[in-house]
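Homework help thread (please don't just give me the answer)

Our assignment gives two proteins as sequence + structure token strings and asks us to describe the second one. The first is just a warm-up. Here they are:
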Amino acid sequence: MVQVDLLAAIAIGAVALFIYHYISKKYHYFLPMAIPCLKPTFLLGSSGPMMFRKRNVTEHTQALYNAFPEAKIVGLYDLLTPMFLARDPEVIKRISIRDFDHFVDHTPSMSNASPDEEIGGENLFGNSLFALRGQKWRDMRSTLSPAFTGSKMRHMFGLVAECCQSTSNFLLAEAQAGKTLELEMKDLFSKFCNDVIAIVAFGVKVDSMRDSENEFYRKGKQMLNFQSIWLMVKVMLIKFLPKLAEKMELGFIDRDVENYFRRMIVDNMRQRKTHGIVHNDMIQMLLEVQNGTLRHSKEEQDSEDTGFATVQESSVGRAVHSREWTETELIAQCFAFFFAGFDTVSTGAAFLTYELTINPDIQNRLYEEILQTEQKLDGTPLTYEALQKMQYMDMVVSEMLRKWPPAVVTERYCNKDYHCDNGAGARFVIKKGQTVLLPTIAVQNDPKYFPNPERFDPERFNQTNRSKINTGAYAPFGVGPRNCIGSRLALMEIKLIVYYLLLRFSFEPTDKTQVPLQIAKNLFTLEAEKGIWMELKAR
């Protein structure tokens, strides 16, 4: 009996040793390469500190970036999977622009398609511009591109401005009623962004400041609950057990939420077709796509930028195609607009008001520019053109996006073997199916490119200094053809809401204002640990 137990123990030990060596060999991938690699932790690779909440997403990205200060590309492991981290702005530009054909896609993450397949079916997130790949992505990008030009922003300006004024009027009424406006700004701007997306992307009017329990806002919060344990479980299942996730019909977004937004868009489109209703929003854009009338114009190509951080459309977005889109593929773009725009704009606006609160000199200078703009308007409503002429506003917003880019890190998926030369004598191959991380927040907070990066300094973006900024080191909306298609709209939203709030209120610190600000330890988003609190004092 003892001998049987001993043999069993030896057998179990041998199997465990075999498994250990089998897994350990996966961590030898970078050993033959002429690039440095972070020492992995068994089973966890380079992901342990994030998974166990020892670092927030910003700290983790900067730790990976700072591990080898002289390297241009670094190796790391996402659990057992080898990945690359591009540290150098020139390497980032090569991957994102010059050699874009090797890195067209984002890393596949949906359970209903292999990396070489086009995503189809009825999955809204899987049919969104963010998730699409290859030629289908190119065609969708060129389809949507005309909807996000400067001239289209002029048409949407009134809708966004109306939401800003409604928010400002509500807060002013609260202050005049004697209420102290000590507010958590991410919550405030989430309600504002909800109303903007509702009217601009879905063609419905809601008022989340006065009715925070409206169904549109509740469904949006349900969709974007990044702290949900169930969401984290779904992400892990989709990533590591895709076949099981497919059988369970799991997606990033709950089915009932998808169906809610789908019904809303379909009903709206039918109503407009039936009654000939026309509005300057994304529903109208979808109808124009169906009719084949949404196109770039010469005027749009020559329009001026809407800010330093605005990304320019590439030849991919201006290409002409003949693909016909299904109803699901079109609806998915409005859905993705909510998914992408809600959190990033509210986060950016919240961090901007934080910086204005702890830097009152900058706040006062921006307020003076707002007053000057109001004087020039001479009682007439704010216009799109007047907003774009506010140079200091653009400097302040550009610096916020430098210090606190809502997209902390982006990535590119290698779709064909890429022979890489890092410019320092190291040559190696990034194989098809591997991912390259682009650590936006780490590069933009590197003193090599932005001296004294912890300081909030809008003068980095004045007319004299702009030309000195390395375009590969400043990319809050991404670089190359796969940049953020909605940068103009995001900038317009942030500038407008700050304009109308500062016009009537000053931002003042309270006992709840955390200085310095600490970032929450979560896996996905840039979020303040204890919220971003301040008092809005009526002027």
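The one we have to describe:
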Amino acid sequence: MNFVRQHILIIAALLSGLLIGIGWLLPEDRSVGFFLLAYLIGGYAPGKEGLLQLIKKRQLTVNLLMILAATGAVIIGYWNEGAVLIFIFALSGALESYAMDKSRREITALMKLQPEEAYLIEADGSERLVAIRTLLPDQVISVRPGEHIPVDGEIIQGQTSIDESLLTGEPVPVEKGPGASVYAGTVNGASLLRVRVLSKSENNKVQNIIRMVQSAQELKPANQLFIEKIEAPYVKTVLLLVSVMMVLPHYVVGWSWTETVYRALVLLVVASPCALVASTMPAVLSAISNSARHGVLFKGGMHLETIGQLSVLALDKTGTITEGKPIVTDFIPRRENERMYVLHAAGSIEDASTHPLAGAITTYALEHGCLFESPEALENVAGQGVSAVVGNQTWRIGKLQFVGEAAGALFHHGIAQKLKNEGKSLVFAADESGIAGIFALKDTIRGESVMAIAALKAAGIRTVMISGDNEGTAKLVAEEAGLNDYVAECLPEDKVNYIRKLTDQYGSVGMVGDGINDAPALATASIGITMGAGSGAAIETGDVILVKNDLSQIVKTIQLSRKMRRIIKQNVFFSVGVILALIAANLLQIITLPLGVIGHEGSTILVILNGLRLLKYR
């Protein structure tokens, strides 16, 4: 719809200009008709909009000022200059509409990347082409090589590489197989896939991104709300000054009535706040579109403004600074020649366990070439570990107390205490002869976290980790990640209280988290930033979502926000400066009405183009 409207506005403006050109070439008595047509064609859209605003909302707008100025020019006999005013105003309006819409097209283009149809696999194995809006959860579809994946789903058959750059910005395709999640709009590689549908088409990740960006574009920042608040009083003030200008110079400085009215009309044009009104939103919309394209979603323009003012960024540990998935960092067998013996037994038992650390041990054993067998007499001992029989040996796997504290303290000259001091979690494996091995596990720091935290500190932002872990683990992670400070053993209410303390001390504080326990702190902070893989409660509470779970995007977004604020300031100072300069030139009688229009509309287009620079910033 906007696309059609833009073309109509441009065609109307150009036709108006053509009629003015013809009018200039004709004698004066025959040119009036062409000028009149130029008025009607070029001025219809802005005139209609201005009158509707006046009638429906009782608001005086810039459009109405331009129509009044053009009408005044006709009354005093300046047909050609009034027509030029209409032409330039109509043309600049069309260009402004195009420029403003460009910042939105970056995101709405996502809609075109989602297919409208998919191949549904029927119960008998046959395929039928259906509209994606009819697909339901748990149905199975077929995705051919090179096709856009039509829905959010889970691969149940096939191994392929997926181009997810649409969602993550990462150009390298991701290898995926059965059990892996895939998202609508991403591109399948060279293999045929069968995908189980996880959600209806209107609830997929791409549609959620589009809705969130559109919502952010509608929620205006404080700068824009202030400008809109003063627009109507400003227009009334301009009309009052123009009314005075139409009379006072004739009596005070001796201008002729024609000159007096003419200068009042020029004042009406050059004092209009078009450029000032356009100083903020093009920049904000461009920055929101830029952020979304790089996997950072804002729930409102005001949050984009706030993130650039942060003094402190508080971060949760698990799933934010760290991966949230412990891995085996050390395995110490009783004797080196028993390494595979212990791995085989521990892997077989943990493969049948549901303990959070079991998966890490199983994975480690598989990576070292172990084949598992089904354990016998498996028994889970709550809070302690698990016992089972493997290879005619009774095994106990779990905490130190479960396998024998005295033996554990002496194992390999007290290596357990050394590993514990390094902030690692320990799992002991014991057979009938005693402790056979120790597994040391640790939640590793994300590869990008250290660099992101260093960049945040370089940008003048203090970084603090707020963790529920014990003091020793929290201290080690904070040191390894390079944080300014940390606080350990925090319950959700402790996190809230600490955020309040930071706010009182430093002012604007951001919070990054991904769990349900982070939601209260996210809501308390000046701005809550949620990891895209986080819980529903955290995503619902946060003001910003990192789709890629990449902390480095926070740094880039803060830089983008600061750039946006600088551009808005540039636009405001420039637009006000141009208005004052044009008013002074008019009082000195050194500009004509067409030149006033060019200066006024030219400044408006320049501030919009300056804001659009943010589309390419990074």
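TA reply:
I won't write it for you, but here's a hint about the kind of observation we're looking for: The first strand starts at residue 117 and ends at 121.
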